UniProtKB/TrEMBL annotation:
Domain annotation Aminoacyl-transfer RNA synthetases class-II family profile: ranges: 199-504
Subunit description: Homodimer.
Co-factor: note: Binds 3 Mg(2+) ions per subunit.
Ligand binding (Mg(2+) 2): 428
Gene label: lysS
CDD domains with a match to the protein in the record: LysRS_N (cd04322)
Family recorded in the similarity comment: Belongs to the class-II aminoacyl-tRNA synthetase family.
Cellular component terms per the entry's GO annotation: cytosol
Record's protein name: Lysine--tRNA ligase
Alphabetical list of NCBIfam families matching this protein: lysS_bact (TIGR00499), PRK00484.1 (NF001756)
Keywords associated with the record: Aminoacyl-tRNA synthetase, ATP-binding, Cytoplasm, Ligase, Magnesium, Metal-binding, Nucleotide-binding, Protein biosynthesis
UniProt-recorded Gene Ontology molecular function terms: ATP binding; lysine-tRNA ligase activity; magnesium ion binding; tRNA binding
Major location category of this protein: cytoplasm
Length: 507
């Protein structure tokens, strides 16, 4: 058998990307080929093909064949042409499956005849999806191949692929993710990792008796978090609506109704800035457990993340895209916000620390903040003095009461609430509360939020009478947690948020 190593198409030389004019020229050439195919009665986009196999399955069945082997086994499969070389009586191509696995195909005069070989040479381009049927063999160098007996175009590509030997720039990766998935293994790995992680989360919830529900994304009242909403208008109801910023208030209604362990994985929308850890549209997990508290939610969250890491990497040690190893194993630290801030700042800071002293400390370290709540200063000071030193996954416990309107006050520490934020890789990954279930106190907190909103705070919550009515019917003591799915993938892969979202929002 003749052997070859597939090489890039001559029209797209190594290291050189085609210009806009060259791409336009190639597009016209391919459109002309499509017309000639149709004129010859060849379907450029057939509705069905007699596929019996896949590239990964064939490779799995034949992992270690000796060179120059004819197996006698026949396979009929399809893939995208990513490399091609044409010679006189024999053409070589490499087909790629969606998972990135590849197989060489050989189209020889002896097997397919003059007409079919000529058609291959005339019609097949890089990027085309091609169906082939033939014997599974190995070349003289041991490369697993299909000796083609028959073939067909499965889908004609009108635009050429980018140069497979050049890295795609970030702009192309996020705007044309389909190209990223075709040419870059890390992009495919990230999609698979996300699917494995989400499946693992659902398994953990199922193991703990949680039910998955769906709550409204269009809401008449935004709430459940401090964030600026997107607004829209319903023609059917002739009313202003909001894209949800959090599912919290509806999930709590479910707990009131007796769904005592409930969770949702779905989209949130916040009309705010976008950076390496924030996206206006993002996937969110929230869960609530009746008769639980924030300590139990910390245990559950650690278990979920460690199980997701094991689902992806086989252990609690994950390897990021840059090769760095990060250990998510063991018991994670639980750190008091006020105590750790006091130790790092060298001065005792408590919920009773006067606003003037907090402002003085902020000014001394050049923190620019103008906010009526002392708790905002405490959180900003904590981020300045403590956050950067966190390496291992850490639960930061017991936040200021005035910045947490939906959280129960601490059972033994006045001026604090039973809330934690989980920091992994230096960013906030998850948060949890011992939930505020007293409808009288909740109303007071909502009124305080409404005052902030009236004063111009676009992130403040509104007074939600429908939620308060549900709460007045009695909600059991509960723990609740929320975690960004995109950020979970950041922690597990070391990538930025625009890489972990398959199709991120771009201008």
């Amino acid at each position: 058998m003749t052997d070859t190593t597939p090489a890039p198409d001559a029209a797209e030389p190594r290291g050189i990307e085609p210009t806009v004019a060259e791409i336009a020229e190639q597009k016209q050439v391919r459109l002309d080929k499509r017309e000639r195919m149709l004129a010859a009665g060849i379907d450029a986009y057939p509705v069905g093909l007699p596929i019996t196999d896949t590239i990964p399955a064939v490779r799995e069945r034949h992992p270690d064949l000796e060179p120059d082997t004819a197996t006698g086994e026949r396979a009929a499969l399809a893939g995208r042409v990513v490399f091609s070389r044409i010679t006189g009586k024999l053409c070589f191509a490499t087909l790629q499956a969606g998972d990135g696995s590849r197989i060489q195909v050989m189209v020889s005069l002896a097997e397919v005849g003059d007409d079919e070989l000529a058609r291959w040479k005339e019609f097949v381009d890089l990027g085309d999806h091609v169906f082939v049927e033939g014997e599974v063999i190995t070349s003289r160098r041991g490369e697993l191949s299909i000796m083609v007996s028959s073939w067909a175009i499965a889908a004609k590509a009108i635009l050429p692929l980018p140069n497979l030997h050049n890295e795609l720039n970030e702009e192309t990766r996020v705007r044309q993710r389909y190209l990223d998935l075709i040419v870059r293994e890390q992009a495919r790995k990230t999609v698979r990792a996300r699917a494995l992680a989400v499946a693992s989360l659902r398994r953990t919830f199922a193991d703990h008796g949680y039910l998955e529900v769906e709550t409204p994304m269009l809401q008449t009242m935004h709430g459940g978090a401090s964030a600026r909403p997107f607004t829209t208008h319903s023609n059917a109801f002739d009313t202003e609506l909001f894209l949800r910023i959090a599912p919290e208030l509806f999930l709590k209604r479910a707990v009131v109704g007796g769904i005592e362990r409930v969770f949702e994985i779905n989209r949130n929308f916040r009309n705010e800035g976008a950076d390496s850890t924030h996206s206006p549209e993002f996937a969110m997990l929230e869960a609530y457990q009746a008769y639980g508290d924030y300590h139990q939610m910390a245990d559950l969250t650690q278990e979920m993340i460690q199980s997701a890491a094991a689902a992806i990497s086989g252990s609690h040690v994950v390897t990021w895209a840059d090769g760095t190893e990060y250990d998510l194993g063991g018991e994670w630290d639980r750190l008091s916000m006020y105590d750790s801030l006091s130790a790092a700042a060298g001065v005792e800071i408590t919920p009773e620390t006067p606003m003037a002293e907090l402002k003085r400390l902020a000014d001394a370290v050049d923190i620019e903040i103008d906010h009526p709540l002392p708790g905002k200063y405490v959180e900003e000071l904590w981020e300045h003095f403590v956050k950067g030193d966190l390496v291992r996954p850490t639960f930061v416990m017991d936040f200021p009461v005035d910045t947490s309107p939906l959280v129960r006050e601490h059972r033994s520490l006045p001026g604090r609430v039973e809330k934690w934020d989980l920091y992994v890789r230096g960013f906030e990954l998850a948060t949890a509360y011992s939930e505020l279930v007293d409808p009288v106190i909740q109303r007071e907190r909502f009124v305080a939020q409404a005052t902030l909103a009236a004063g111009g705070d676009p992130e403040a919550m509104r007074l939600d009478e429908a939620f308060l009515t549900a709460l007045e019917h009695g909600m059991p003591p509960s723990g609740g947690m929320g975690m960004g799915i995109d950020r979970l993938l950041m922690a597990l892969t070391g990538l930025g948020i625009r890489e972990t979202i398959l199709f991120p929002l771009v201008k």
